[in-house]
Amino acid sequence: MFLTVLLLLGALGGWAQSSTLGKSRPLTSALWLNLSSDARLTDRWGSHLEAQWRQAKGVGTPHQNVLRLGVTYHATAALQLSSGYALLLTTDNNDVPTATLLPEHRVYQQLLLNDLQDRLQLQHRYRLEQRWVQLADGAAPVYVNRIRYQLRMLYPLSGPVLTSSGAYIVAANELFLGFGRNVEHGIFDQNRAYAALGYQVMKSLALELGYQNQLASSASIGRFGNTHSVQVGLKFNPDFRPLALVAAAKEAEAK
Questions:
Q1: Which DSSP string do the residues of 131-191 spell out, in sequence order?
Q2: How far is CA 216 from the centre of its chain?
Q3: How far apart are the C-alpha atoms of 75 and 180, rounded to whole Å?
Q4: Angle (CA) 31 140 143, round 5°
């Protein structure tokens, strides 16, 4: 709760400021295709894989590709600790017509808290990132720190708990704050608000279709801009523990 309050206060202090890192020509619309997988390997350990294909102006203009890999430690049923690496390739839209792919390398540490309030599933995600961002073709990477907080709420529509062949709705908000010597014009980086309709195809597979409003600062125009995105997400979370595999086989046979 203390960390959450600090993040919200930081955002309020940065609404009227701008950041100079990793921003090209501002977008107004985008399409994101997301694939994520959180695999449970043992009672304590798991893996994370995430790939994103982001297009600007619908599917007409390449914008960004993301690959994230991580290792997860399940401390308790409600607490997960993770660490990993991410690679981003961003198209410099200011370089049209010869657009350049600018790489960004990240290392991250993450804390995830799950909470159940009657039918409502709450998830608090705190992520700390160390980023090496290339701002122009041939330029040396710039190092910057960033902290992110996401509150995600899921509500099942088909019953008191989410089961296979059940629909659900999702609402989420994520706040991004930069800090360190290379953050020149305030700590507020961006905010993402998200709403979606989901369908739990089976215990390990879910599909989401949603909308995201992204408020981000842009150095090229010196002010904030909104990007409206349609997102299609596929979540595959297999459980490879022996007992879970037996239970999944029995469920498949019952169908």
A1: EEE--STTPPPEEEEEEEEEEEEEEESSSSS--TTEEEEEEEEEEEEEESTT--S-SEEEE
A2: 15
A3: 30
A4: 70
CATH number of the structural domain 2-254: 2.40.160.40
Q: 142 near 21, Cβ under 8 Å?
A: yes
Q: What percent of the chain has pLDDT over 70?
A: 78
Residues 121, 78: Cα–Cα separation, whole Å: 11
Cβ atoms within 10 Å of 138's Cβ, excluding its own = 6
pLDDT tens-digit readout, 204-235: 999 999 999 999 876 544 567 889 999 999 99
Q: Alpha helix locations (H) across 15-89?
A: none
Task: Pick the range with the lowest mean pLDDT from 96-105, 143-152, 196-205, 242-251.
Answer: 242-251
Domain ranges, ordered by start, for the chain: 2-254
Of residues 189, 188, 192, 146, the one with CA closest to residue 172: 192
Q: 16 by DSSP, 3-state: which?
A: coil
- Could you tell me which residues come within 8 angstroms of residue 136 by beta carbon, excluding any fewer than 6 positions away? 92, 102
Q: What is the three-class DSSP state of 247? A: helix
The four Cα atoms 37, 41, 47, 53 give a dihedral, to 10 degrees, of: -20
